[in-house]
Amino acid sequence: MRNSLLVLASFVAAVAAQGVKIVAPAVNTTLTLGETFVIDVERPDSLTGSQEVAIVIGIQSCGQSCDNINTAGDIGRPLYSGLYTPTIVGNGRADLAQNFTVQLPDNIQTGAAVLAVAHFALIIGTEPFLEVVNQVVEIQP
């Protein structure tokens, strides 16, 4: 039993080390319809071997509140779909990052919106890993 818990804890730690985060735009950033902007997706470097496969970045309008939006099942309108090939950020940090320049559609509802990143990787070469991270932004005309 104890060995099983250690293996489980090791796996959870390995998976957590592969997770991405949206660094830019910051939470509650105001974006303008039709605007081109940069999305910075980072993940920590890890001793656990992993192979990045792909990400999909989407945006979904929520009107006044995004509290009931579940991006795990619907990331909204895709803004980018393709390879995720982060490089070392440097500056005393060991994080890996990749920037994506995308254009906000000019026909999306204004107000609160969820910017979502679906990230797919293989851990230790064979274990599929899929996560969806998101944050709220504001869209103005």
Automatic annotation (TrEMBL):
InterPro entries, per database record: Nis1
Leader sequence segment: 1-17
Keywords (A to Z) from UniProt: Signal
Superkingdom of origin organism: Eukaryota
Name of the protein described by the UniProt record: Uncharacterized protein
